[in-house]
Description:
With 133 residues, this protein is of the alpha/beta class. The protein has a single domain (2-132), classed as 5'-nuclease (Rossmann fold). It is 51% helix and 12% strand. The protein contains seven helices and five strands. It has helices at 7-15, 19-28, 38-52, 60-70, 90-99, 109-113, 125-132; strands at residues 2-5, 33-36, 72-73, 103-105, 121-123. Strands 3-2-1-4-5 form a five-stranded parallel β-sheet. Helix 6 links the parallel strand 4 (103-105) and strand 5. The mean pLDDT is 93.
Amino acid sequence: MKVVLDTNVLISGIFYSGPPSRIISAWIEDEFDLVVSTEVVEEYRRVAERISARFPGVELDRVLDRIALHALLVLPAKISGDACADLNDIKFLECAVVSRADCIISGDRALVRVSGYEGIVVVTPRHFVDRFL
C-alpha cells in the first residue's frame, strides 16, 4: 500500500501519541510505503525543526532520516491549482497522483474535502488506523 502523509499527520505522529503516532510506527514497521516528493520532505523538515524547539527530548532526526532513506521519492505530477482550496496542499495531491497512492492521510479539512480527486482517497488518521491497521 502506498500512502502520502500530510505534514500535520507526520508532525503529530512524531511529537504526540494517538493515531498519527500509530501510523508512523506502522510505516517504520514496513506496514505500508510512504510516498514523498522533494517539496513534501522539505516541508516536513521545516515544520519539524520549528516545532522541535519545544520538545528537546524528541528523536526528530530518526524519523526524518528514515524518510530520506526509505520513503519512495517521486517527481510530482503538475495538477491544476484549483484542485484544492489550500494551495499549500497541492503538493500532497501531486505526489499521490503521480505515485498512484492508495490514499493521503490528513487531518486538514481542505484535503479531506477533495477526496476522490483523480481517484485519490483522503482519510483522517483515525479512519486509517481503524480501517488499515
